[in-house]
Design goal:
The chain is α/β, with parallel strands linked by helices and 211 residues long. The protein is 31% helix and 18% strand. It has helices spanning 4-18, 38-46, 75-82, 106-121, 163-175, 196-199, and strands at 27-32, 63-69, 92-95, 131-137, 143-147, 180-185, 207-210.
Length: 211
């Protein structure tokens, strides 16, 4: 598995660039209602705070989060293979849309996610084009997750009137992949039987639950 995931990551990067509607790669898709706690779950997996926070729909583009386990003694070799500068810190991130820059400040990672989200979707719109972030760290397991916008029902401020359908269509694009594992996030204080994240799906064999 440790050898397979990097290969899948390379394929994912290639398909994000050239596009592919016919090949469906295995992936873990993170889905939940708006403010359900998806960001907190992902940040706990990484062990760092790096995701944008705020009111309304903060995640408006898919975020492909590639975690690469990199022991400190392998950092130099990893950076040389990537052709990037060798950072002083053992935990760092790179974006596929930003060339020749290594992020060691996770607050800067958050700002870049916000800026790149606004670049295509503005302050309110949903975009289907993913952002790919790779995090190298000795504290993570090699894993790839895709964070999607939170389910919402009512447009607020100047959000598009069809915001609910935009989000649901985007989620369906990902979870309809038969190779997808759905990580459904629901708050612990929400009745399981009424959770939007759970009732939205009809493929229970593919779902993992987190409260």
């Amino acid at each position: 598995m440790d050898a397979l995931i990097p290969i899948l990551n390379k394929l994912q990067d290639a398909f994000n660039t050239v596009g592919s509607d016919s090949i469906q790669l295995p992936q873990i898709v993170v889905v939940g209602s708006q403010s359900a706690g998806k960001s907190s779950v992902l940040e706990n997996i990484v062990g760092r705070d790096f995701l944008p926070r705020g009111t309304g729909i903060v995640t408006r583009r898919p975020l492909t989060l590639q975690l690469i386990y990199t022991p400190s003694e392998e950092k130099q070799d990893q950076c040389q293979r990537l052709g990037i500068p060798i950072p002083n810190e053992n935990e760092f991130g790179i974006f596929t849309h930003v060339k020749d820059r290594v992020y060691t400040d996770f607050n800067e990672i958050r700002k870049e996610i916000e800026a790149e989200t606004d670049r295509l979707g503005g302050k309110k719109n949903i975009s289907k084009e993913p952002i790919t972030l790779k995090i190298y760290s000795p504290k993570v397991v090699t894993l790839t997750l895709i964070d999607l916008p939170g389910l919402t029902k009512i447009p607020v401020d100047d959000q598009p009137i069809d915001i609910e359908h935009q989000v649901r269509n985007l989620i369906m694009d990902y979870i309809s992949n038969p190779n997808a594992v759905i990580l459904a996030i629901t708050p612990a204080n929400v009745d399981f039987s009424t959770s939007d994240a759970i009732k939205f799906f009809k493929l229970p064999s593919q779902i993992l639950f987190v409260q």
